[in-house]
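New to this. Please check this protein:
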Amino acid sequence: MKKLSIFFVITLVVAVVFTSCNNSGKVKMPTLKTQIDSLNYAFGVANGSQIKMYYIPADSTHADSAKAKIAKLLKGINDGMKGDSDPKYTELSNLGTRIGTALKEQSKSGLLGDSSLTVDLKLIKQGLINGMKNAKTQMPAEEANVYLQTTMQKLQMKRVEKQYGMNKLAGQKFLEENAKKPGVVTTPSGLQYEVITKGTGALPTDTSKVKVHYHGTLIDGTVFDSSVQRKEPAEFKLNQVIKGWTEALKLMPVGSKYKIYVPEQLGYGAQEYGSIKPFSTLIFEIELLSIEK
């Protein structure tokens, strides 16, 4: 079972109404009273910094050009909101059109697609301006990026826990009862296993490439993946799979067959993977066929 990584991407499309305040594009330091205020402003700063990087010259010899481009971009976004375009600055006008389109979407769906986060157009716009001008305000671009990522991840985790928290509780209860069964061993990490067949071959290491047969189910018996059913063994390195598998396989000499019980923190955690819902405890029968070279 391959592990997944969670990452947060800030898109280069910003939802902003440029027909409102600060059409002059002046740097200002807005008051951020709430978390939503900070998220809106950070979103603007982060994207403004990206626009500066890709569209506005960085060297001082082109300072006038930079100012002109920022002004043109602000106008281009305003024109884009109205469906107009400027043939002299097609690239910037096109960017403005995309921003206008994103405005309509985010105004309905919420900031970054989160319906619980209200879009504050003035704060996003000011953040965008400050980011494009690399202003030394209360939230530099790098800090804005970090704040966006960490805050949105925390909010996402709260929503996932609210929706799927019962899976975590069900898994914990299952493992507590399972640990009492004869032959079941619980490791310090919380992994549980029982030996079906003990092999006599070599033990794999973190970097070993192994060939295995496996059959995976949820605690209710639902089969979510099975190389046995496909009649085709799987090959992978131990450091490319979920933690529960890595730990278990390092305990298994070649030729072994174990049944393992993987708590959610050693599996996919808060991630959803096909029919595996967040915080699911997983059960596998694994047969270690060989260590590949």
